[in-house]
Specification:
- The complex is a heterodimer.
- Chain A is of the alpha/beta class.
- Chain A has helices at residues 20-25, 51-59, 73-79, 101-112, 133-146, 228-238; strands at residues 39-44, 67-72, 81-82, 93-98, 119-125, 150-155, 166-173, 189-197, 203-210, 215-219.
- Chain A has a single domain, classed as Rossmann fold (3-Layer(aba) Sandwich), CATH 3.40.50.
- Chain A is built from six helices and ten strands, in the order H-E-H-E-H-E-E-H-E-H-E-E-E-E-E-H.
- In chain A, helix 4 (101-112) packs parallel to helix 5.
- Chain B is of the alpha+beta class.
- In chain B, a hairpin with a 2-residue loop joins strand 2 and strand 3 (214-220).
- The chains are: A alpha/beta, B alpha+beta.
Chain lengths: 239, 691
């Protein structure tokens, strides 16, 4: 079972090509196509937003192979460490803390050469000079050569030149209503904007994550807006 | 190993085993008809003079033809033995001496059990009598005069009446037992001195281990012993007795490892050195928590100037290490063990005096467990001699099912040499090291490293080993020495992989004026099998992952790469403990059942909260100078402190899942409640972020 459902026909926005999600982690989707594992970048809207790590975790394959998760010190201090109890299908995890961004890139490169890993996730703070087009291209090529998906979470960063095959911008949306308790937050919703993609048309969706099934669904597009009040009003109407 | 029960196998006894010096004087005297028969059939019988040639037994022993003849003679004698009277003592004795020399070589000695001979009950009194009389009057092993006297003595030596009178076999070895009565305590004191927190000697100190009903005393120092602290007693009792007792927990694993190292170190005296695992621990035996080594010093004592000098040397060297020791040398392991614990200082026991010396020792000296010692005491058997006087059949019937530590018969046989108990010394651990001597001092060791690693890996592959830790040592020409270490999570002998572990580390070496000697050693090596590659040609995942772990740990330090170790705890930060990945492979964690965040702040960050009611959820909070208005919340979920792990006064936590006005979800908790008597107003913390 793929952790990310292929978007079903009725809910599909026309801009979302088939096999979008399965392409991101190199597994065969329900429709049978096999897309290459590659490097994807995720830019959270704010530093402490849980949407970015949640989105990456939703894409981690439900496999026995371990995951290598690399953080630099600033990311660890500002946004906390991964907590396995909050994951629906917690993988075996190797957790590496390094000092500099260049060490994150070196360790990611080492991990991407190891086919025993199911994914490599790196967190880089800011815009280090080491993370340029060449470095991202090295990661992308290595990831594609060894079929190990790579994710780069970039906090407090500008979306500069990069060779990442997919670049996402993530933000939290007000959650779905909890059926048992109207005051409580329910299943999470994120605004996922694919603003650069190599193999598909960019677009913007509302991503919903079902914690119990470890399934991610992409829903109707929302207008890209920077106005949080409007979103909260929309959420209030929703909930 | 030494612990297993070996039945006496006469046929398997080596022909070289009998002692050449003692064969001549060994003459079991019981007047067995077999001997008489042999004597008659043997060629020299007619010309048997009363004072025969002493040189003959060795000659006959070495000649296989003579041996075959002797066997045939014995067999024919056995058939005719019924007719033989038992009073042939005077005329036949010299010949008997001669023939008896064959007995250890493998001639079955069933003559004692023959129905025609005296039944055991009649044989016993005589041997028991002789046993007391025996060794005292026997001194010289070589002289042949007075065969009557000697026969009497040797019969006694043959383990009294448990075994029918028989020449002790296998008594040619010289076994040294080394007893370290205070090994745990002395090792602990030594490590404390190395840490720099050594305590005065006159302060009572004790080490404890966990017992069934709380900690029990494992080792004590001299001051504690004088104050009345007993090994094996419960700690609470001893604390009541000696309130100033300084207590620490014993590290049994380190003790064992230290004893193994000491065993290897002790091979300086003799190569056959092993850890004495037959030491029964337990308070009832009174042996306590000491440790022991056993050495087979046969043939190596002369290198140290004799056995007495050897023992003095060992004791001196060990006291230099801060270890008190008790030593003894005896022909068997059991006897040496007993004498080292219960004998005199540096006692030496010869094969002749073995039975007499052992007879006076308590039955505890037989390496029996506490229950058996108690049982023997209730049976009224206090000494080895008393036990030996019991008919063998009765002992065998009673203890036939008992294992070795609870079987006094087998232990007695081991002590007397009836049951073989060789010292099985483990092999020395192999050592892998290569070096490169350079003609000229160089500044950079890197070009020499590939050849060194390749040579080292070749050596390890030949021996079937893999390196867990590599040490690169660089000797500078001005005398400075620097080391570099690299560790691996699994044993490895892949040259390319090991070489990469030193990547980026060589810069830390200060070359000075250059160095002229480089050594590379596998300082920790483990056995490593050859793994077959998969049939479909896919690369194996295991070694791949292990090499990745090695590389990352070597580069960033073993504390940087971690894996989760799951604990049974409902305190969120204690549920996952991050352990170094070098310790082992990760375990796939179980998913949680309660809603939990995907990120956790460690430690939690304090927030300022505005709430409507003190016990209720927050209405608004300020975190990192940003105000968040609470749109929705769930909770509280109360998590109480773990009283068995937390300090007293730790407050409970009420967790809330909060969603703020922008849709971000947080995990907040209030530490404590109002008026819980554990501090002032409760504080609020943010502990995690939900997806």
């Amino acid at each position: 079972m793929s952790p990310v459902q292929s978007p079903p026909a009725p809910n599909m926005p026309p801009s979302l090509p088939p096999g979008l999600a399965s392409a991101t982690h190199g597994r065969t989707g329900q429709d049978g196509d096999r897309r290459q594992a590659t490097l994807a970048e995720v830019f959270p809207e704010t530093v402490v937003d849980g949407a970015a790590p949640g989105f990456v975790i939703a894409h981690l394959p439900d496999e026995a192979r371990p995951v290598l998760w690399i953080q630099d010190r600033l990311s660890l201090r500002e946004s906390g460490r991964p907590y396995l109890a909050g994951m629906a299908r917690p993988p075996e995890m190797y957790f590496l803390t390094v000092n500099r961004a260049v060490d994150v890139l070196w360790a990611m490169e080492q991990g991407l050469g190891c086919t025993g890993l199911s994914a490599v996730v790196g967190e880089v703070w800011g815009d280090p000079p080491a993370l340029d087009f060449t470095a991202s291209k090295r990661l992308a090529l290595r990831s594609e050569a060894h079929a190990v998906p790579a994710w780069l979470i970039r906090r407090a960063a500008r979306a500069d030149l990069s060779a990442a095959r997919e670049r996402w911008r993530l933000a939290s949306l007000p959650s779905l209503p909890e059926p048992d308790d109207m005051r409580a937050p329910g299943a999470p919703q994120w605004r996922a904007e694919l603003f650069r993609a190599r193999w598909r048309t960019p677009g913007s969706w509302v991503a919903r994550y079902d914690h119990g099934d470890h399934a991610l669904t992409f829903d109707h597009a929302v207008a890209a807006t920077d106005d949080p009040d409007r979103q909260s009003r929309a959420a209030g109407a929703l909930g | 190993m030494r612990g297993e029960v070996k039945l006496p196998d006469r046929a398997a006894l080596s022909p070289k085993a009998p002692q050449p010096a003692t064969t001549g004087r060994v003459t079991p005297f019981t007047g067995r008809p077999a001997n008489a028969g042999e004597a008659k059939d043997q060629a020299p019988a007619p010309s048997a003079p009363p004072a025969p040639a002493p040189s003959r037994p060795p000659a006959s022993r070495t000649d296989p033809d003579d041996l075959a003849r002797a066997i045939a003679a014995l067999q024919s004698a056995l058939e005719a033995e019924v007719a033989q009277p038992r009073n042939l003592r005077e005329p036949g004795l010299p010949q008997r001496t001669e023939e008896e020399a064959f007995s250890p070589i493998g001639i079955p000695q069933p003559s004692r059990a023959k129905p025609g001979t005296a039944q055991p009950s009649t044989a016993q009194p005589s041997t028991a009598l002789a046993w007391r009389a025996g060794p005292s009057e026997e001194e010289g092993p070589k002289e042949q005069d007075g065969p009557n006297r000697k026969t009497a003595g040797r019969t006694s030596a043959a383990a009294g009446s448990i075994a029918p009178p028989e020449r002790p076999r296998g008594l040619t070895r010289r076994i040294l037992a080394l007893y370290l009565p205070n090994f745990s305590m002395e090792r602990w004191q030594r490590s404390a001195a190395a840490r720099g927190d050594t305590l005065p000697e006159d302060l009572p100190q004790a080490l404890a281990v966990e017992g069934t009903h709380g900690p029990v005393v494992h080792a004590i120092n001299r001051a504690a012993g004088l104050a009345g602290v007993q090994v094996g007693a419960r700690v609470v009792d001893m604390r009541a007795l000696v309130p100033t007792l300084k207590l620490d927990y014993a590290d049994l694993g380190s003790d064992r490892a230290a004893l193994e190292r000491l065993m290897l170190w002790s091979r300086r005296w003799c190569p056959w050195t092993a850890v004495d695992r037959s030491a029964v621990s337990g308070s009832s035996t009174g042996v306590g928590a000491g440790a022991g080594l056993v050495m087979d010093t046969t043939g190596s004592d002369h290198l140290w100037g004799g056995e007495a000098a050897l023992m003095r040397e060992i004791e001196e060297k060990l006291s230099g290490l801060g270890l008190s020791s008790q030593l003894a040398i005896a022909p068997t392991h059991g006897a040496a063990w007993a004498l080292s614990r219960f004998g005199a200082v540096r006692e030496i026991c010869t094969a002749d005096s073995l039975a007499l010396r052992m007879g006076s020792l308590p039955v505890r000296a037989l390496r029996l467990d506490g229950q058996t010692v108690l049982l023997l005491k209730r049976l009224g058997l206090k000494t080895v001699g008393e036990l030996a006087a019991v008919p063998r059949l009765s002992l065998a019937r009673r203890f036939s099912q008992a294992a070795l530590p609870g079987n006094p018969l087998l232990r007695l046989d081991q002590m007397m040499g009836q049951l073989a108990e060789p010292v099985s010394a483990p092999d020395d651990p192999p050592r892998f090291a290569v070096q490169a001597k350079l003609a000229e001092p160089v500044q950079d060791p890197e070009p020499h490293l590939p050849a060194l690693v390749a040579e080292l890996c070749q050596g390890m592959a030949a021996a079937g080993f893999g390196a867990r830790r590599l040490t690169l040592t660089v000797y500078r020409s001005d005398g400075e020495v620097s080391h570099l270490d690299a560790t691996t999570s699994q044993p490895s002998r892949a040259a390319g992989h090991l070489l990469r572990l030193f990547e980026g580390k060589l810069d830390r070496i200060d070359p000075g004026f250059g160095f002229d000697l480089i050594t590379l050693a596998a300082s920790v090596a483990e056995k490593m099998g050859v793994v077959q590659a998969r049939l479909d040609g896919q690369p194996e995942e295991g070694p791949d992952m292990a090499q990745l772990v090695d590389r990352l740990s070597a580069r960033f330090g073993p504390r940087s790469l971690r894996r989760p170790a799951m604990r049974e705890s409902h305190v969120p930060e204690r549920r996952e403990v991050w352990a170094p990945a070098m310790a082992g492979p990760p375990r796939r964690p179980e998913p949680g059942t309660l809603p939990r965040p995907v990120r956790l702040f460690d430690p939690p960050e304090e927030v300022r909260v505005i709430y409507a009611v003190p016990e209720g959820p927050p209405a608004q909070f300020v975190w990192r100078r940003v105000t968040h208005r609470v749109a929705r919340f769930a909770g509280p979920e109360r998590i109480a402190p773990e009283w068995w792990a937390d300090l007293p006064g730790t407050r409970l936590r009420d967790y809330y899942r909060i969603e703020d006005h922008t849709g971000r979800r947080f995990w907040l908790y209030r530490e404590g409640v109002q008026e819980d008597g554990r501090g002032g107003d409760p504080r609020w913390f943010i502990h995690g972020i939900f997806a």
